[in-house]
Amino acid sequence: MKIFRNLILILATLFIFELTFTKKAEAAACTVTSGVYDASEVTSGFCEATPDLYEIVIYQLYLCTSAPTAPTTTSAVDLDSGGCQLTFNNASGSTASVSQGTTVDLGGSFTRPPNGVYTHGYAKMNNTFGISASIQLDGNVTGQSSGTGTYCATVTTSVTAGTGSDPSGTSICSATELTAGKLDETLVSFDSSSFLATGTASNINGTSAAISGYLVDTNEYLATGTGDVDKLQGLVTFADAVTMTDSVTSVTMSFNVGAGMSVYPESGTGKIIFGSGPFQAIISAN
User: Fold this and answer.
1) Which has the closest alpha carbon to 141: 268, 43, 49?
2) 211, 10 in Cβ contact below 8 A?
3) Using alpha carbons only, what angle is made at residue 150 by residues 266 and 26, rounded to the nearest 5 degrees?
4) Taking the domains of the chain in order of start, what are their residue ranges?
5) How many CA atoms lie within 13 A of 142 on its CB side?
6) What is the pLDDT of residues 92-106, one digit of tens each?
7) pLDDT tens for residues 184-227?
8) Over 15-82, what HEC string results?
9) What is the pTM of this model?
10) Contact 63, 84 (CB under 8 A)
11) Which residues make beta-bridge pairs with 107?
12) Do 79 and 62 meet the contact criterion of CB atoms below 8 Å apart?
């Protein structure tokens, strides 16, 4: 099997915390010992962890021979300029609900790109992410929605990220183990203090891989305000080029959601907040 190790479609998103997109992408992993979280850590700062389930809706995936011209406030991305080839398409969106390291069979049309060397990837997806998680901590923590205890879980609700204040009602805590609900988080800005439609990160996983994320409107133009945001698009620069040859006959997709959940304290109260985090879609060629 040939693994496209560097087809990194990490469409990292920024959440409602007073940090920039790049700092979020570099956030430390939560301290988890034998499955138990450090309570003092999650009530004093931001960290990332693995959710039980992660959900994202994907519309299109492309492989490109160079970087396409990015979307602007008056034009959509020019995929032809980057020699981009459509490899997956579902106009209605295909929902991937995955746990760490699982292989996903997306519902839609897959197209084998022509033989060649591909240096970039481009993806179009929904700007709403779903997570479910139930965790144990080594000390008592208070939930945003209700309860206090050493067990906390996501609540079935919908929140918005990037609006200038903490989301509310994301968590519940108890002295006994809890069943997680699905938390849907919609991204409307890459900065919480002012509207930012573009976010970038480099040196992904310690490599030369890089990513640019774009919040776009219904015309797929770069959004001009939070109320203008309709979808999320992302451009990835691969650390190493992906080469398609005659020997490639099938493609599978797996997801790395090891940092797919953000955990941090509510401003002024220290109550635990759950949010979504970056994921990695890895294409494997057989």
Assistant:
1) 43
2) yes
3) 50
4) 2-285
5) 9
6) 998 877 665 555 667
7) 999 898 877 788 899 877 766 566 777 788 999 999 999 999 99
8) CCCCCCHHHHHCCCECCEECCEECHHHHCCCCEEECCCEEEEEEEEEEEECCCCECCECCECCEHHHH
9) 0.79
10) yes
11) none
12) yes
